[in-house]
Amino acid sequence: MVDANLRGKFITLEGVDGAGKSTHLPWIAEQLRQGGGKGGRDVVVTREPGGTPLAEKLRALVLAEPMDPLSETLLMFAARADHVQYVILPALKRGAWVVCDRFTDATTAYQGGGKGVSADLIRRLSEATHPGLKPDQTLVFDCPYEVSRSRLGASGRALDRFEAEERDFFERVRKAYQNLAKAEPGRVLIIDGSKTESKVKVEINKRLISN
């Protein structure tokens, strides 16, 4: 079990592709650093899948190689186990705040909601991978399908295989995130990512925990 006396806080950013999560992550991290007083706050920024050399190799496989949903889920948790052990927990134990681009909620939404992997299996894998560890706060960036497609198309880069999924998949993932927010309203907060960047920042500022 995770030590209940962790001194740092764990904040995760989630949401459908194209909703602005990655765009706002550096700004959020800076806001948290500035909120630590004169000495500043130690903030660790990381991502999933990824965050360690092993997890980054698994990320490359998951984002590029076609595979069945079960294999995909198991690889996600393999990467997560390494990430938790070597990055997230050490940072939290020393008192740092961790801001992570996706965590287990993403597996619930993408592999569970999007691809039909058993919610019970995802729960059991999460308990084995990070027992007792849940984010203190999760910001879910949300936007309609049309906004997502427009932004991804304007990015000028090749899409990974999740970004390239069809509308039905996008809507299932979006619905899964909305259900998470309904189930855990104290932890999971929906951010309207379809607004302008300045308006999104105002909304984040109102809702982001800072102490």
Write the topology of this structure:
Elements (H helix, E strand, L loop, with lengths): L9 E6 L5 H14 L8 E5 L5 H12 L4 H25 L3 E5 L2 H11 L4 H11 L7 E6 L2 H10 L12 H17 L4 E5 L4 H11 L4
Parallel strand pairs: 1-3, 1-4, 2-3, 4-5
Describe, in plain words, how this protein is organized in 3D.
By secondary structure, the chain is of the alpha/beta class. It has a single domain (10-207), classed as 3-Layer(aba) Sandwich (Rossmann fold). The protein has eight helices and five strands. It has a five-stranded parallel β-sheet with strand order 2-3-1-4-5, sandwiched between helices. Helix 2 (53-64) runs antiparallel to helix 3, helix 3 runs parallel beside helix 5 (119-129) and helix 4 crosses helix 7 (167-183).
Number of domains: 1
Would you count the extended β strands for me?
5
The fold-level CATH name is: Rossmann fold
Helical region count? 8
CATH superfamily descriptor: P-loop containing nucleotide triphosphate hydrolases
Helix content: 40-55%
**pLDDT under 50 segments (min length 5)?**
none
Strand order of the largest sheet: 2-3-1-4-5
Mean pLDDT across every amino acid position:
93
**Spatial extent as radius of gyration:** 16 Å
Order of helices and strands: EHEHHEHHEHHEH
| Structural class estimated from helices and strands | alpha/beta
Alpha-carbon distance between the two ends = 24 Å
For the record, the CATH class is: Alpha Beta
Beta-strand percent range: 5-15%
Query: In the CATH classification, which architecture applies?
Result: 3-Layer(aba) Sandwich
Largest sheet: 5 strands, parallel
Which geometry do the CA atoms define? Answer: globular
